[in-house]
Design goal:
Two copies of one chain form a homodimer.
Chain A lengths: L6 H11 L4 E2 L2 H4 L16 E3 L4 H14 L3 E4 L18 E4 L6 E5 L4 E5 L4 H10 L2 E2 L12 H6 L7 H4 L6 E8 L4 E4 L12 H5 L7 E9 L1 E2 L3 E9 L2 H15 L3 E8 H10 L13 E9 L6 H15 L2 E6 L3 H12 L1 H8 L2 E2 L2 E3 L5 H15 L3 E8 L4 E8 L5 H6 L1 H14 L15 H7 L2 H14 L15
Parallel strand pairs in A: 2-4, 3-4
Antiparallel strand pairs in A: 1-2, 5-6, 6-10, 7-11, 8-9, 8-10, 12-14, 12-15, 13-14, 16-19, 17-19, 18-19
Helix pairs in contact in A: 1-3, 8-10, 9-12, 13-15
């Protein structure tokens, strides 16, 4: 069990980074104490802003020796309180944002070595500068940092084609809980020398060590893109269209995003500059994007033909194909503004869940029935990455209803939603992680053998339990 | 340290599987005691042929209780002695071949649950039966089993497009060293609930537990394929062509295999039915394959145009495009017969190594210089998966030279080759694993922090050290 740091420990930690690289006044420390969703309000003994891996190693060496808890902190965009210290005021926040160099970029090897504190947008820009693509893409990419993307195994809107963050990693540099440095920044496509140690740290949410840099996979830049907003009648129609699109275009299907009518309506209503480009209202919408590095591919013709065939079969009701980048961007703005529209509309109950792709219609139908029964003041807005089986099954407070009684529905609805997801072979956290928010639920629902393996790994890699305590795993 | 099994233990193990499912006569046991390359000749106390996961669990429960070593055994195609018991005769061989059911195949979810004892060819056929593709492809696919492919993180000829075996896994069922069953057969594309436990077992070569089944990713079947045999002047020309192909066709470049002139010559000479389809001799050859699920893609035109552009620039000397499946198969037969041709030609010194893709020309040039100096009786045949930075840098005994003195060159050449690979940021085992063959070299060369993490993981998951001792990690 970690202990409060004494004056000597705090002094050594400050000396490890030097003046100008630590914060301890309440005003300076405040931005590090609340999460993005304002679910948690913690306290911290000290905030450290190291500039390089050696300083991170020294911090962990001291903290491990003195059994002081460390909370790694990136862009602070976690939806699960994963980067927020607890309320005791005895934890040290380790902010990675000053480790923000692109160390190396190699177009021939399609790889890039980048530090944890770079934002995802900076990583994307660095790849573009070398005429390459770093494909991870998500709403908070201007703020979220690579270290957080790695530690939460981030997903987003291009997973169908490129996979999650774990799939995009060739190598890692990690400072272990005891301050030793695991120097695994390989750029190899094939390396079968022993256990896959690096994958353990991806998705571990800073509970096994601190990722300080990564060697990431790059891809050929897209030279042909076809984007469409498609109106459909039901989630089952979405699956039919997905199957036909994948058969026609394979993994050139990069994004396949589902939205309900209400999501489109709220977004048009609440977010300036967003319009619904379709001429008729349909119950469901898809934002589909195909990409290829081959400029002569003519994906627009391929997508048009597939949508016309689907329309002839009755699967597609209406569709608009983007004929300019501006039109495509407007469609993406519609999709990416759904969370903001929900925020402006009122309170929300959120569930980031996944099921096998074929179970998406069941999840939507049975989930809606649960909301009618358990949160009748709410309207379902289930949207997201249908092509990956991942929906943000959210419930928006209906205008005029009472917020307190609506929010009070949360716990019972969440339990029922998680039961439903489990019954469909799904996951209670598709892409946002466990953090503090879902740690208890995860402990209750995880397979006991798998959970005991995770606790064993935690004890092995962080025997003193100093790394981000209370996140992912509940202390036994 | 494991101990010899006593009569009681052997009796319990036999009872766990029942009569007809164990072997202990020398004649019956013999096929399990030598590896494919005949490098090792071991002995075994007993060979067990369980039929289901419950029997595997009972075997491990008994062996763990009594501290008896277990050697998991699949198709026995390891190049590194990974599935062969040691010489003491105290180890128990656990053959997985009777766990050979395809449990489930789901075309909509693009996934398949298959048991460890199915051959890779059976897995491919099952996917084809559902109009899907399981893309792992390698020379021994008719014999190699899925459990071995998983345990060695197998590679092969389609890694450029689809990744290694680890990239193709959605979920695993594993019997742990103590007999508990990790039931992780999820078919989810996104699941961020805790640590990536399953990846630890992939590539662990049976030293952390026994994989009994896997949920594997499927892909759309290819409906358009373009295959070409291309004559080029140098490995650098190969890299130039690869870069242009990836820019033109992205990940539709499925295979990009390099062969030297001598490899083609020996294959035509030694393997019946193999011909060189090109009209002129060139120093190097590429077998290139593009695939797409879109039948209207016209990849042949795309490949032809790219090769013509390259010929105009002087990068491509000669090329033959397959205009029929038979022609494409003949090209693949040429490529896949290289190991057989080497075997028929004489003794070989083999190195399965990888470097960053951009370092392939240096590896070939500097490796050839090492062979001239350290194994002058040998001719270099460095061939393989150039698109992944993975070469089988092999040396064939020159006819008329003395085999003993040639083979005596092996250890010194291997050391120098591994030094070279290390200096280029590469790996001493790209896709064949460590097994017993490379365990000492790996221990000597691995990063000490990474190696200590691996030993810690081994102690955590297999505290009594019963799982495939002496493979991957040397006993400390």
């Amino acid at each position: 069990m970690p202990r409060p740091p004494d004056r000597r420990t705090l002094g050594e930690l400050k000396a490890a980074v030097g003046d100008g690289s630590w914060l301890d006044s309440p005003a300076d420390v405040a931005p590090y104490l609340s999460d993005f969703r304002r679910l948690y309000h913690g306290a911290a003994a000290l905030v450290l802003l190291p500039r390089n891996v050696a300083e991170v190693a020294e911090i962990l060496r001291i903290c491990n020796r003195d059994e002081v808890a460390v909370v790694p902190h990136g862009g602070n965009t976690s939806y699960c309180g994963g980067a927020t210290p607890d309320e005791a005021g005895t934890e040290v926040v380790l902010a990675l944002r000053r480790l923000n160099r692109v160390r190396q970029i190699d177009a021939v090897d399609y790889s890039m070595v980048i530090e944890a504190g770079c934002t995802l947008a900076e990583a994307q820009a660095a790849a573009r500068g070398a005429e390459r693509l770093f494909p991870l893409s998500l709403g908070s990419e201007g703020t979220a940092q690579i270290g957080g993307n790695l530690s939460t195994n981030a997903g987003g809107t291009a997973v169908l084609r490129y996979g999650m963050m774990r799939d995009l990693v060739l190598g890692l540099e990690v400072v272990l809980a005891d301050g030793r440095i695991f120097e695994g920044l390989k750029s190899l496509r094939k390396d079968n020398t022993g256990y896959d140690v690096k994958s353990l740290f991806v998705g571990a949410e800073g509970t096994l060590g601190v990722i300080t840099a990564a060697c990431l996979k790059l891809f050929p830049a897209a030279a042909d893109t076809a984007t469409a907003l498609v109106g459909i009648g039901s989630p089952q129609d979405a699956l039919d269209l997905l199957a036909r699109l994948r058969t026609a275009a394979g993994d050139q299907v990069t994004s396949f995003e589902l939205m309900p009518r209400l999501g489109v309506e709220l977004t048009v209503q609440h977010v300036p500059g967003v319009a619904d480009p379709l001429s008729q209202n349909t119950p469901w919408y898809l934002l589909i994007e195909l990409t290829s590095p081959n400029p002569r591919q003519d994906l627009l013709t391929l997508l048009t033909a597939t949508l016309e065939e689907a329309a002839a079969r009755g699967t597609v009701v209406d569709a608009m194909l983007a004929t300019s980048t501006a039109q495509a961007q407007a469609m993406w703005k519609l999709r990416e503004s759904v969370p903001e529209a929900q925020r402006r509309h009122g309170a929300s109950l959120k569930h980031d869940v996944s099921v096998p792709v074929s179970a998406i219609p069941k999840l939507i139908e049975q989930g809606a029935a649960l909301v009618r029964r358990l949160a009748p003041e709410g309207d379902v807005i289930s949207y997201g990455h249908a092509g990956d089986g991942n929906l943000h099954f959210n419930v928006s407070q209906r205008p005029g209803s009472e917020i307190k009684s609506f929010l009070a529905r949360g716990p019972a609805l969440e339990l029922a939603m998680f039961d439903l997801v489990e019954s469909l072979g799904g996951s209670i956290s598709a892409e946002h992680g466990i953090g503090r928010l879902k740690a208890a639920e995860f402990a209750r629902r995880a397979d006991p053998v798998e959970l005991s393996l995770m606790h064993a790994l935690k004890r092995t890699l962080d025997p003193k339990g100093i790394m981000n305590p209370g996140k992912v795993l509940c202390v036994p």
